[in-house]
Amino acid sequence: MASLWLVLVVFGAIYAKLDTSWFGGALPLQDPNFQTNGFIRETGEFGTGQPIEGMSGAHWLGTDAIARDTFARIVHGGWVSLVVVVVSATCGIVIGGFLGSLVGFVRGRTETVVMATVDVILAFPALVLLLALVSIFEVRNLFVISAVIGVLSIPAYTRVARANSLAVSSREFVTAARAIGTKPRRILFREVIPNVLPTLLAYTMVAAAFVVVVEGSLSFLGLSVQLPTPTWGNMINQARRDIKINVAQVIWPSLALTLTVLSLNQVGDFFQQRREVRGSNL
Amino acid sequence: MGKVIATRLARLVATLLAVTFLTFSMTALLPGDPVNAILGVDAVRDPEVVAKIRADLGLDDPFLNRYVNWLGNAATGDLGQSYITDQEVMTTISQRLPVTAQLAFMAILMAVILAIPIGMLGAYKQGKWQDATTSAGVQVALSIPNFIIGIFLIWLFSVQLGWLPASNWNRITTDGLVENLKTAILPASALAMTQMAIFSRLVRSDMIATLQEDYILAARSKGLSDRFILLRHALRPSSLSLMTIIGINFGALLGGTVIIETLFAIPGVGFRLINAIYQRDIIVIQGITVFIATAYVVINTIVDLLYAVVDPRIRKG
Questions:
Q1: Do residue B168 and residue B236 come from a single domain?
Q2: If you measure CA to CA, which chain A residue comes closest to B270?
């Protein structure tokens, strides 16, 4: 169930992105920024859509305050979350994973310096540091947002990778490799990192859930990508102003966001439990 | 004990130095001239104002000098002054801190009060339907972002039922406790939900481990009632880990207050931070960030120390 929802969101986001940037909106999904009650130049008339419509065949989840199709906006909204998660996971695994594996293996002064830096960054409440960093940028586009979140993801991954690298580095096969004179670099890449990676991948799911919430919070505060780009967070923020008239428009993006976080948490739990079981069998 | 305190305090000072340095250097990261950022690019340039700001910030000094100066001022409680509202940052914080502190305190209190029975139930009925239901509920509570909880609390209790106000804040000092709680209960509940989920998970797993200990078996064989064993023997060890996790989660809670205060328009520190970000009021952003980070680091150290006071094994080690 959980992974099914995640597959749906990812597929929808990529499909929506392809639709707008490759096919010029020719694929069957409505334009997320098209106002269905707006002026149509070709016909010289106004559209027949209504703001804050209920569910219908034409608009599966109704329309928002300025008569845009909510379903299309939710499908498109997944794109921002997806990009942020992918960038953060890549930064985390590649940079954080490497740094953590390295210092857990070589120890010494490098470890002290790297872990001290990590500790300082983790000494900030995550969201507050993120807000402060984001506020520096005058233009907030997807690149800036995902880069900032990506960089801030590194310390946590480093810590997880180091803890595992420490454990792996003291295992027999590493000692054996040392004893037969394998070069440290080769041990690091051939023995340590491959054994740290699975745990790191399980952690990625949990981290992704956190990142989705963080991006949602930024969007909700209007500090993520600029409007009219749809994100679940900014959809919730826009719809909550009309909550007295219609709660459904708040429910849909909230549901999308919550289901995604819930699914990521469940998949993460599943992987982590499997890791533990496998670890205890060794 | 003295040695433990000394190392912890040394670490505290080092972390604080690094944290303040990092926050301070963010202003140096600003693209272009900080004066532009403060005045806004389109602002009419009064050379006198520009010169005053440059002098105030010591922009012509080397970076490290500036940091040391700023740190010296910050240590004496001077975090500078907003160029937009003309208010001292420290005054702003001290006016707003009680509000944020009350919210955070209420949230933790509510979370703990709810989490202990839920976690205990899960552990006591491990594997039964009571455990399955509470675990599922906790997992869901853990996955709903707090601003969504907040919005639906507003929808239910303000829009539908009309029992509680959707925004605003009544102060205890001027409006009395009841009026104050009316405005505080919804935002505090929104904050408490996630914490409750985290705490009750911890209590459950902790207690499952504790219930397998020999001394629980001994207590059972003495014929003590389940209730007595749970409350007296099994709950106590869990209080330690609960304390740690409260400390660790305090940072997330502070981040949460930023959003929740904005959602409920509560005049706390977090709402001020968001407004400062909207106005690009760099001095205030920097001041509040440093303040929150410092508070977080100090609280974690206190929790660490308390831990050492309570648990003799750590005191010796």
A1: yes
A2: A128
